[in-house]
Amino acid sequence: MISRHHSMFTVLSIASLALATPFATQAAPPPGRLLASQCAQCHGTNGRSVSGIDSLAGESAREIYDEMREMKNKTDHPDDIMHHIAAAYTDQQLWLIAQYFSTIPK
Amino acid sequence: MNTLSRRHFLKLAGASAALAATPSILRAQSATSNGRVVVVGGGFGGATVAKYLRLWGGANAPQVTLVDANLKHVSCILSNMVLDNTRSLSSITFGYDNLQTKYGVKFVQGKATSFDNVKKLLKLANGTTLAYDHLVLSPGIDFKPIPGLNFSKIPHAWQAGPQTTLLQQQLQQFMSSSSPGNVIITAPLAPIRCPIGPYERACTVADMIKRKGKPGSKVILLDANPGIMAEVNTFTTAFNKTFAGIIDYRPSVQVASVDSDRRIVQTTTGSEFQASVLNVIPAHLAGAIVRTNGLVPDLTAANWGAPVNPLNYESTVSGMSGVHIIGDSQGTGMSKGGHVANGEAKVCADAILRMLKGEALDMGPTVPAACFNSVTSTTGSWLSTLFAYDPVTKSMIKVKAPDNPTGTFEAPAATGDNYERIFDWSANLFADTFA
Ligand SMILES: Cc1cc2nc3c(=O)[nH]c(=O)nc-3n(C[C@H](O)[C@H](O)[C@H](O)COP(=O)(O)OP(=O)(O)OC[C@H]3O[C@@H](n4cnc5c(N)ncnc54)[C@H](O)[C@@H]3O)c2cc1C
To answer: ipTM of the assembly?
Structure first.
């Protein structure tokens, strides 16, 4: 538990540091953008779904992250495709994805 | 209008006034100073890369020209559902208006025939040339020839459009006749686009026969592969239980030749099969623009795709820098699907934008392969794999998990929920690609 909180904290601070960098110098693409774009096949461009699948745009990063972690760890649901998708990403990747969607307006 | 958007508006208005005052030659230069990308093929790979280059490029986006032989793309995805009239062909046909109006992609209708990578010029069949800094090729597939096979009589329906309609009409005629018969589908050796496609199609036709009650009629699936290549549990159950007595699955049967008038398949071991409706899906090749321009060094290789660096999809053939191949024609070994082609396109777009600015590539790309397919007209299943870049082998490998030891997971059962999900998924995939 302690180590989980610790790693979460580290990830959080790295991510916020990255975000604090001003956009000035032809900024490199936002971290997480490419990773998050691979969710769009099912969740819509920039996480704005046009179908019954959930939109992700504009949700809080913490909420998206926690939900993906929950799906990742829920091994008793092999019929949930999101369990297998979430389980294929590291926690750090999940955080970057969550962070990116939280910056997109709904 | 709030202040922010109003300020943005004024800035834009100022910029266009400045542009209007610039002499036309300068204007043309400034339009291309962010680079020129020409994309061949407006299917799942090509349309997506064109859109994301413009979407992500923002104010510094390169000029993007998309070339397709046709004015509209007919999606293979959901096209098996056209065969039993669950979907219309028009509902899976997409134009390029959105890409042009929303993202500023330039569309050119034409067939690309060759390119000169020293002069950086793409040539079209009508004589037009298009200059590029980066060339992205996503032409889909071609077929290996089979003696006697005439597609105007024996459809492949493996590139959607008129071929889909032809097979649909033949099936409709078969279903409306009272005499029993066999529908024969032949599946080629892997790798193919949509590895589950032939099995799904066999189920679609079997379901038509089962629902109509057409006694004595069967679907014979002649598979060149030694067994079911994807969703093994789902399709084993479908063939042995759901469609027992209707689907006759025969692995390791290879087509040698076809009599297109008499609808007969001759196999490499000398057997003959006669069909009421014959659907031959030949083995695949990379699209001609890729294959005939030196991007596939070994044209006889089992992996017929063009070798590329999966960090940017650039050809690894010498002299081919700035030429990128995505979609079914690339040879990373990832499964070939529209979902995957769309994912590769985003990695490619991100990489080209970085290359144009002289930035380092993202070293950790992922590409998901997911497939949602029907089994009956009310049930469906799915398959999921995540590919991630492995710096040791410099290739895309499947991410495994303790409860997913192969890295590919299929739905535990065909269900109604999974069937509904096909449409939720495809609506977003279509929009992410074409809208
Ligand atoms: C029956 C069937 C069902 C399928 N179902 C699924 C599914 O459920 N999920 C999934 O992920 N995938 C599915 N697929 C696979 C999917 O359709 C392909 O993998 C995908 O279309 C590949 O994208 P692409 O960009 O490589 O080629 P395509 O999407 O085929 O696009 C190629 C485009 O290039 C154009 N073109 C080719 N050569 C030239 C040239 N020289 N000049 C100009 N234009 C050119 C063509 O006109 C075409 O528009 C299915 C395929 C089939 C056959």
So the answer is: 0.91
